[in-house]
């Protein structure tokens, strides 16, 4: 009797970051590329003089090798969250050099001045506190997939817009306790630093972000509504970091639920209710060709 084929091991997905001085970002990029290729990693890492950020996937031994390498490079205090994916969640492995590991666009000092960390177990109490303003620092399409009950949505399209939003709402927030959250915590390192720089004194943020909360807090105690958008092929995750049910529109990037995928404007790889009226027929034709190539395994 023939034996059944072994079930492939799930991909380990590591979302990690640390702010620390990097003397030679280009040299670090080259060493990371070499390691990633040697271990067949996929995903993207961003390297800058202020540190490292990214999400990477691979088999267990590859992720272990990456962590060991980073530790040897001085990244000994990584904020590191792990989940799994049944299929390869990224196509390639990339390491990019940038001016910031998460782009705020204004100078802040997250290594020297940052808000007070709040653990997952204490976060619900902040959501219930009428004297605390809880702010979602993510982009509007991320908030669309899910957010915390009662959180303020700044309605921004990129994190670079957050300082301008803050400038417009300084008076509304004056004298209040402000708590912030984001996907994995890194954006709040900068947003809380910005508020402290602007004179706010009672500033907090969710340690490890939404991903850590969904990992730590049982579903029966959750204050989270919906799913959490992630920047990989899973699109969204839920409690326990299990893969969610959303599908991304590859034209505009919005996470689409089942109802939106039944809409007449939805065409896989081409358009959705959010963007169908914003692209030309020529663009839609190009998107169809891209989808055809993808379905045929040509890209």
From TrEMBL:
The cross-references to Gene3D superfamilies, in alphabetical order and at most eight, read: 3.30.70.100, Rhodanese-like domain
- Give the E.C. number(s): 1.14.-.-
One matching Pfam family: UPF0176_N
Which reactions are catalysed by this chain?
A: uridine(34) in tRNA + AH2 + O2 = 5-hydroxyuridine(34) in tRNA + A + H2O
Rhodanese domain: residues covered:
128-222
- What keyword terms does UniProt attach to this protein? Oxidoreductase, tRNA processing
The keyword Cytoplasm is assigned to this record: no
Say if the entry is tagged with keyword Oxidoreductase. yes
* Domain of life according to the entry: Bacteria
Q: Which family does it belong to?
A: Belongs to the TrhO family.
What this chain does, per the entry, is described as: Catalyzes oxygen-dependent 5-hydroxyuridine (ho5U) modification at position 34 in tRNAs.
PANTHER family in UniProt = RHODANESE-LIKE DOMAIN-CONTAINING PROTEIN 7-RELATED, THIOSULFATE SULFURTRANSFERASE/RHODANESE-LIKE DOMAIN-CONTAINING PROTEIN 2
Full protein name: tRNA uridine(34) hydroxylase
What is the protein's species of origin?
A: Deinococcus rufus
